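REQUEST FORM: STRUCTURE PREDICTION
Request ID: SP-0412
Submitted by: Lab K.M.
Chain count: 1
Length (residues): 311
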Amino acid sequence: MNATTPQTFAEGFMKGFSGIVGAMLNATASYSIFGVEDLTPDALHGFLTQFGVAIQTGIKTGGGIAVLLPASDAAWLATQASGKPLQSPNRLTEDDIALLQEVCEPCMGGGVSHFKEAYGKELELTQLRVMSCDPASAAALAERLGDKATSASFLFSVPPDIQTEGVLFFSRILEDVIPAPSGKTLLSETEINDILNQVAATGAPSPASAPSPQPAPPQQRVIPGNLDMVLDIRLLATARLGRIEMPIGDILALGPGSILEVGHLVDEPIELLVNDKLVARGEVVVVDEKFGLRITEIVSARERIESLGHS
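STATUS: Completed
RESULT:
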């Protein structure tokens, strides 16, 4: 198994998990991963003494995932998302557990949905359980995770209200959802950004900068540094006609036949964005009865690399 796969799995799960939390709270939730390592029995018991609540679920095809949080922070998330207070945040009652399960189930589902979007691999969850972190929980977690599992500590925040630490457990067999390109090494998001930033600092050759007075045979493209290690990574490309800000009331009033003026003139170029970063402009064309975009302007190679490095 590739050495970076556990980090990639942890980052992917937390990306989906935090996205659902943010949507529930109508806020921007963020996270950072640190301390990814094999989960040993001693480490499991140590984490259970450190945290108060364990949110665990199985995967239909095998393995499991668990998230450990301080009890008070889990209670805050549950009350903010549901509008219902826990009866005893520091000692969960049956009603508290039911509320936490109701709130946490879509969050765990959001965590695994990332892998379907990114790799086309669907992880179907089995019954989710919320329980207090105590010695009795160790056996249940160990059984759910299996013999080989990984722990990933993380920082989680929803500014300005909460910043907490937690830990993610996942069975190592789940890492197989991340395909490893043949002959290449998977990189974490941090490593990808480091490579792109390094290339941006030194500058990349621009195709427009090389004079070509006479036709010449195609030359092999020179990839600076380690940029070739990230060229197969898929990014989201979007053609943007325009944009508009609207009050929620106006959005709710929309219906069939409504017309929105997006502030974009007919003869203005359409913007091409990659991961929400502008990389080119062009004009709309029709290709085989489908809309297409003919590129008329490309931002500089340095700007493109810098935008990808900060996506």
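NOTES: The chain has a mean pLDDT of 79.
Reviewed by: T.R.
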